[in-house]
Every structure is written in structure tokens, then in C-alpha cells.
Design goal:
Length: about 500
């Protein structure tokens, strides 16, 4: 009976498909086959699936959850497509939404596992968030959440307990450094909005200092992702910088995995007065062309965009647009090469979704961005740095850069006893240094210096790095460095 009911369900699907046309036949085949022949062929395919499903459900050596079987079937279909199309289960849908929105209900701390003690440790409280107001400090060990000890917790365990509905309280016990007994703190959760636009360093009040070169008024903005609020954040920051007399801008898109297409076009429009920003085209959608408008454009100062091999998708849209319009110099290394657009489709009667590739996008010049399977180093893909400004980092150096950026973005109050010790550690950011030198020369009206390749140091010079291009994994999820802490 279950098999028959499943087949009946698929017949209803096929009846709908007969009206809109099958999804798997080629165009010449559609013209040659009659509607009945197509329907019969698809019916046989779905019957094969239903029969297989029922055989596994009924006769496999161990009982298998039927939902897990169905989700595995969906995931199997998507694996035949591309690395960016996937199924989002009900359990993961909320986390996915949080990553897009960059806001959630929580207490506003970044936590990590101490590498020595493996205890859950506060890396930093977010400025102005409930945890900071309640007295939580950097370096605090969280010993308990509610009535549960955190001794064997990982970060995801903490996420589940610390996040929740705004307005709901959560009790935690924290052990301050230098003390022997933990103290209990009750914190009322609030909407935590994770900033995606960051500067060079924190001021004492928790706001960002953006100028990397005060004399030349060169500002530095690190955009971590293209989330729902990123455009408004950047717009507000640019208004502040304009009032402070900005003369040059460095937009850091290194390690930026992308995000929303609409936000990428809005940010591109912020710096380009006219012309095409990007175009998208799909099999069942009309071509869309996004064009710039002059109103609200910041075009009266030179710009540099920093990219690396982990800059992808929306990062490549912005980089390619500003490069093609000669609005910004691109410094760094070839970007990831993701020229496809994913649409999130909510599935009916369930809290799950499909993230499905529905279109490809094209830069204003028409050059290809997407790195297709089997693409070679000499092929056209990604966004290349401008001539003489390719500064590629080796694996060790790029790992140090990622740690440096993560450390810099942790807010440490002036009374933090470890602040002085940690500030002694320096990292020579060659790509950023080249950007500052270029912009300072442009502002001074002199010929910009060409960056030089340093002598081999720890195996991390450009010659060594070139040999590593072929080693980059095909999927972004496998290759991006793991975050060292996570906001709650």
C-alpha cells in the first residue's frame, strides 16, 4: 500500500509536469516525442525510484529512517549538479538564515576553545552587547550554562544554549582571570547584529578607527560578507569618512565568500557612476542587467580592492565591476572563480529549502569568472589582480594573515591585562602595505611604486605560492580556514 500511495503521489507530479514540459529531456527530444511518450518515460523513472525506496525501507538489514532516505535521495540528485547547489534541512535552515542575515537572538560574545585547557573561553564580548553590559570580560572561562557544565563542550554545544529568543534570560557562570571561584551572571538575550564592515582597530568606546594612514587620509574597510545589512553599514561608514575628509580607500575583500547578489550590485553602484555592473542569465529566466546610477556615488578619490584565493561570488562581482570601469586597482591574487547565482527555494509543507544554481553572472567586460571543473591555470576564470600587483601568499603566510585579521577584530577594553602583550605580535601584511603605498603616491601626485617580492622566507614567497595554485580544493567549504571563534 505504501508503494502504491507513493506512486500515486508521483503521478500527480507527472500530471503537472506534462503541462509545463519535462525537466530532463533535451530540446530536440521534446519536439520529437509525444506528450504521452514523455509522460510514460518519466513515470517509469519515478517508479524505479519508488520501488528502490520501498525495497530499502522494507528489506535493508537495519531499520532506516524514511525521512533520512528521502533527504539522501535529494542530496544525491544535487551532487550531480554543482558544488553550490544543496539541500538545507530543517535543522540547518536557521543557521543558514543567520549566516545571511548576520543577526540572531543571543548575548553577544565570541567564544573559542582554549588550546591548552580546552575550556570554553570568551574571546571577546561584542561592544554594547548584553554580555559586556553584564560584566563578561575577554579571557573569562564559561564554566556553566544554565545548570550544565561546559567541561566537555564544543563551540556548537555553546551556540545551542546561548542563542535564543530576544528577551529571554540565560544564566552562565564565568571564571574571571586571576580568580578562583566562578560567579553567576544572568544575561537577557537581545538581537545581536554582527557587523560586516570593520576597520583597522577599535577605539576605547568600541567603535572602529578606519584610517590606516592619517596623513594621507587613507581609510581601510574590511567587508567580511555580503549580508542583508552590509550595504547600509557601508553607506553609513562612507558618510562618516566623507565628513572626516577621506582621500583614498582600501576595500578588503580577502576571505570574503560572497553573499547576496542584490547587496553586491548596491555596493558596486556606490563607487561607479554609470554603465553595467553585472548581468545574469539562466535557462528559465530572462537576462538581467544591473546598471549604475550617478546619484550617491563616491568617485572623487582613488581606490584599491584587496582580494585573495578565498574571495568569491559577490566579492568577484564588486572586484570585476570596479576593475572593468577602472575605478579601483586590484591587489592580491586571483580570486576563487564562482560565477553562478543560487536561489533559495523554500520547500512546501516543510521547514527545509533548496539552494539551487539558477543563473550565471557575467562581468561588464564580458570576460568569464566561473572556474569550471578541470579549468587550468592558463584559462580565463576568477578576477586577476592588475598588472604588477599580483602578490600571492603561500599557505603559511595566508594562514597567518587569517589569524591576524581574526585577532584584530576582537574588542579588547583598555583594562585588558593581556592587551599589551598581544599587541607586541606583528604581522607584515604585504598586500595591505602595497595598497597604502599605491594610494599615498596617487594622492601625492607621484608615480606609484611597484611592489617588490621579498626574499624567500619560511617557504612563503610568490615563487613557492605559484606552485600551490593547482592544490586549491574544488569546493569553497573545504578550503576556507576555520573561524577561530564564533559569536553567540
Amino acid at each position: 500500500m505504501r508503494c502504491q500511495s507513493l506512486i500515486v503521489a508521483w503521478v500527480l507530479v507527472l500530471s503537472t509536469m506534462a503541462l509545463v514540459g519535462p525537466v530532463s529531456a533535451d530540446e530536440p527530444a521534446k519536439e520529437a516525442e509525444t506528450a504521452k511518450e514523455i509522460k510514460d518515460k518519466d513515470y517509469e523513472m519515478f517508479k524505479l525510484f519508488v520501488d528502490s525506496f520501498e525495497q530499502i525501507d522494507r528489506n535493508y538489514v537495519k531499520e532506516v529512517d524514511r525521512r533520512e532516505l528521502m533527504e539522501a535521495a535529494i542530496q544525491g540528485m544535487l551532487r550531480k549538479l554543482d558544488p553550490y547547489s544543496n539541500y538545507i534541512s530543517p535543522e540547518n535552515l536557521r543557521a543558514f538564515s543567520d549566516s545571511v542575515e548576520q543577526q540572531f537572538g543571543g548575548i553577544g560574545i565570541q567564544v573559542t576553545l582554549d588550546p591548552t585547557t580546552h575550556r570554553l573561553t570568551v574571546a571577546a564580548p561584542l561592544p554594547g552587547a548584553p554580555a559586556q553590559k553584564a560584566g563578561v570580560r575577554p579571557g573569562d572561562i564559561i564554566t556553566d550554562i544554565e545548570t550544565e557544565s561546559t567541561e566537555n563542550f564544543d563551540i556548537e554545544d555553546a551556540v545551542k544554549l546561548l542563542r535564543g529568543q530576544p528577551g529571554e534570560p540565560v544564566k552562565i557562570k564565568v571564571l574571571h582571570r586571576g580568580e578562583t571561584e566562578p560567579v553567576e551572571v544572568t544575561i537577557v538575550r537581545d538581537i545581536i547584529r554582527v557587523a560586516t564592515v570593520r576597520g583597522m582597530s577599535y577605539k576605547e568606546d568600541g567603535s572602529w578607527s578606519y584610517f590606516v594612514d592619517e596623513e594621507h587620509k587613507i581609510a581601510y574597510l574590511h567587508l567580511t560578507t555580503f549580508s542583508r545589512n552590509s550595504y547600509e553599514e557601508l553607506k553609513e561608514t562612507m558618510e562618516t569618512l566623507s565628513e572626516e575628509g577621506i582621500k583614498g580607500l582600501i576595500l578588503d575583500l580577502r576571505f570574503n565568500p560572497g553573499g547576496l547578489l542584490s547587496v553586491a550590485t548596491e555596493i558596486s553602484d556606490m563607487f561607479v557612476e554609470e554603465g553595467k555592473i553585472v548581468s545574469t542569465k539562466g535557462r528559465n529566466t530572462q537576462e538581467q542587467v544591473f546598471s549604475a546610477k550617478k546619484q550617491g556615488t563616491y568617485s572623487d578619490f582613488p581606490m584599491v580592492i584587496l582580494v585573495n584565493r578565498y574571495s568569491a561570488s559577490a566579492s568577484e562581482i564588486v572586484s570585476a565591476c570596479l576593475q572593468d570601469h577602472k575605478r579601483a586597482l586590484i591587489i592580491g591574487e586571483r580570486t576563487w572563480g564562482k560565477g553562478s547565482v543560487q536561489n533559495v527555494i523554500n520547500l512546501d509543507y516543510d521547514d527545509s529549502a533548496l539552494k539551487l544554481t539558477t543563473a550565471s553572472y557575467h562581468r561588464p567586460s564580458g570576460k568569464n569568472i566561473h572556474r569550471f571543473p578541470g579549468a587550468k591555470e592558463e584559462d580565463e576564470w576568477g578576477v586577476m589582480p592588475d598588472e604588477d600587483y599580483k602578490i600571492r601568499l603561500g599557505d603559511r603566510e595566508i594562514g597567518n594573515l587569517h589569524s591576524h585579521l581574526a585577532e584584530r577584530e576582537l574588542f579588547k577594553p583598555s583594562d585588558d591585562e593581556d592587551k599589551g602583550e598581544e599587541s607586541k605580535e606583528t604581522f607584515a601584511d604585504r598586500q595591505l602595505e602595497a595598497a597604502v603605498a599605491y594610494l599615498a603616491a596617487k594622492i601625492d601626485g607621484v608615480e606609484p611604486p611597484k611592489p617588490t617580492t621579498p626574499a624567500k622566507e619560511n617557504g612563503d614567497n610568490d615563487e613557492v605560492a605559484k606552485k600551490e595554485d593547482a592544490k586549491v580544493p574544488e569546493t569553497k567549504e573545504e578550503s576556507k580556514p576555520e573561524p577561530e571563534s564564533k559569536p553567540k
